[in-house]
Structure formats: structure tokens, C-alpha cells
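hey so i finally got around to running the thing on that chain from the lab meeting. sorry it took forever, my laptop kept dying and i had to restart like 3 times. anyway pasting the input first so we r on the same page abt which one it is
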Amino acid sequence: MGGYGSGYWLGSDKKKTTESNRRIDIRYMKRQGMLKSGTVGLLSWTRNGKQNGDINFCMERDQLILSYRYRFWGGEWEEVEQLVYFDRTACNYGGERIWLLCPHCLRRVLLLYGAGKYFLCRHCHNLTYATQQERKKDRLIKKAQAIRERLGGSRNLLEPFPKKPKGMHWKTYWRLYSEAEKASFISWSMFLDEVSPARNGNGDF
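ok and heres what got predicted. didnt touch it at all, straight out
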């Protein structure tokens, strides 16, 4: 088993985004050579450079066995052993791809999330991506900033738009310029709608 209290996080995080929960990534495990049958080890997670959770695992050919402790909001600690089965699909150029099967819905996935007692896919845990919870205005601002940064300029939307980088086609440059300016204009209009009572219909012109 992991260290004392290592499973507390499995029930303690109120946030419902993929980014705020621990995850098991089959691609990472493959890169680390963890998928060999008989492998026994520890999966751990860090936050701000400090370890804040770990669980034990045992690998068999067709399944992953997870062992950890769990409790829900100050309840009694519970020993949990979860089986996660694999699925394999052929690749176009030979070899095979290994998938995790969500223990609840049996969907093929690359990631399972520890947002409750068991590791399940994001659909079963009803998780969203953090970007999905951002307001449209914020997403548009980030889009405009990302384009400016890609062109080698400042992310500050008040500064002049970056010049065309050497080697970039003019067609590509003008497309990016159009996308950035459109996103910037719409986000600015939405900001004015938020701060101006008159534009919101809450004041007199």
C-alpha cells in the first residue's frame, strides 16, 4: 500500500475538471516500461513540485490491478482494489495500441481519473476540461494572445500587431491576423457590455 493518508485525495477534491484530478495515463505507463506483465510499482502525483498522492499497481497481461486507501469526507478509511482491463487495437503500420477500458462504461480511453472512489473515465465522473468552464470572452482573449505569441510578438493586446515572421507565407499571416483581430474585437465588445450599464440596458443613454 501507499503511505499513510496517500489515498485521501481520491474523495477530497471538489473541482470537477480533468485538470484538478489525478489521472492514470496509459501512454505514460508505456513510455516508462510499466506495461510488462508482472511489473509491480507505485504511481505518484505531484503538485507544485511536491508529492501529494500515490497508489500501488500490479501489471498483468490483460489487466491493471490498483491498490489504495479511500475515505469520503472524514469517514472511515477503506481498502480498495480495482481491476482495470486492457483492450488492444491494430495500428495501420503494424504493432498494436493498448487502451484502458473504463471499469464502469467499458469505453476505450487513454486516461482514467481519480475523482471518486474508483478510477473512471471523464464521462463517468462527469468531468469537464478547464477551458470549457471559461467564459467565451476569456477564451477569445487567449486565442488572440496565442496567435500574437506564435508570430513572435507580445501577448499584450494593446500593443501593435506583430509583423510577419521570416519564412511565413503571407496567406498564413493574413489568416492569423484576421483570426486574432476578430477574437480581440469580439472580446472587447463583450467586455464593454459587461461594464457599461447603458449597453446592458440598465441605464439611460
